[in-house]
């Protein structure tokens, strides 16, 4: 491990992306989400992803020069065509319009399509929540999760993120895969030579396994049995077909072998908490207070925000192997 | 057990509510959701709830003569003031406006406030999905669920429902408590003298229990660990504070002892699938086809729809004790 400052991580990320033909605004957008993931100790979405971003560019599958296009569809509905580029610059292109539509309509949605998504959803919605809106975000990935009762891959890890703004405090944000574990977590277990906990995955024959390699060859399982499976299907429907995008099976059929981010859709829904009442924030704080009065209870984003406070001054530990891999991609 | 036709269940429900001072439109709305729950073998929301509805009326806590009032707030945002009546007539009062707002804006939300909710969410959203819209529904109940890591009640069982319309087929609809089990399920176990599965609940000391009575005195647990707990908190926030309504703790503090439905908020969000693409339905059907090609996989509402086909001709089995209790409430 080596210690790097956040600005060194940002610089490293941006330079390696620029060196591989990514346009400057997109490189800045991605360096930002990568750096924020490292700052929050969310390693599975940090520098670890850089080789994948580069693979997408080098294979020509992702257009490094793509210019996202914002299309208003209805008063509360926007689409951003990512034009075969990466998702973070596409989200950046639509954010302001989504916020404006939410304020005027009370609720609004933004569909990001034809974009290659590889970042953490909390990072995508945090800037919207920071403007005082409640926000959800959903994305479909490559097929890797078997439905409850099933034996083979059908859904992606299909994460759900939700953010609630808190005046003068870090927002309440959660972001989790609807699989028992994210694919990145399984890959990190494999790299570390560790077994998987039971209930995470099945092997290629549809039988339970604790072996990360067998899990990656077989299928992950949804979290929480049939309920998590239903939520995973919901994400598949609303971040896929609902916005004219592919299901994770259709993405899988593209047989992407370069390790880069798959194409697909992403759905944002935002709600203006001043729409119904001026006291939403106050009532919510009594709820958060009641929650934190129970020892043992933590709000979802607490660990990330603690890491963020530390990393701002101390920087973060980066795995030497990942660091050297990225440096080699500069050439 | 005795066998009753659906029309007999509808008639019984309506008559007992009318006999206890409920206005006719509200009695029809509630008889409808009760009958549909029995038709779908969803007993915990069927006739079993009638004594509770009557208790709310007899105690004077619920206004049987309430006239719900619809208030447009922003182009995509409506509020229905239930005026201290039951929720089903309030939802009926806003449905048409929600559908119209969704079609013109692409997405819209309806907050039902100051209403007493006791029905199943799938029954609330089914008429909206039947009109071709994607729909979510969320409701906050009385505090009965401990957060992940906690030792006492904080959230309600806070269900989430989602519906996706399917052309020429029964819709894809799920509706589940974000607790490991619904409170009604625990009460049915208690009435049947059965143990609870592990992981459903903790006792008043915060320790795991399999005893339904201890669970009802203690707290239920969220499904799916910290992820289900986060979803439960989300429901608490969006069907409570976000729409100017109480949290489940605040409802609990009202110390409702009559067994009737608690007051509180309910949030609907609807999305027009023709908003982004005309092919949402077609792409979704490939997904459903892929799902059902795996033996062992069932779509969420299958069991309900099978029961519905049977009960239309055969009627349903009703517990004698519940039947006699309801008949006694007619006096």
Description:
Two copies of one chain form a homodimer. Chain A has 331 residues and is α+β, with helices and mostly antiparallel strands. Helix content of chain A is 41%, strand content 19%. Chain A contains twelve helices and twelve strands. In chain A, the strands form three sheets. In chain A, strands 2-3-4-11-5-6-7 form a seven-stranded mixed β-sheet, sandwiched between helices. In chain A, a hairpin with a 5-residue loop joins strand 8 and strand 9. In chain A, helix 1 runs antiparallel to helix 2. The longest helix of chain A is centred in the first third of the chain and has 19 residues, at 87-105. Chain A is globular.
Question: What is the topological layout?
Answer:
The structure is a homodimer of 331-residue chains.
Chain A lengths: L1 E3 L1 H14 L4 H16 L10 H9 L10 E6 L2 E10 H19 L1 E10 L4 H9 L4 E6 L20 E5 L7 E5 L6 H10 L8 E2 L5 E2 L2 H6 L1 E2 L4 H14 L9 H5 L10 E9 L8 H13 L9 H13 L1 E3 L1 H9 L3
Parallel strand pairs in A: 3-4
Antiparallel strand pairs in A: 1-12, 2-3, 4-11, 5-6, 5-11, 6-7, 8-9, 8-10
Helix pairs in contact in A: 1-2
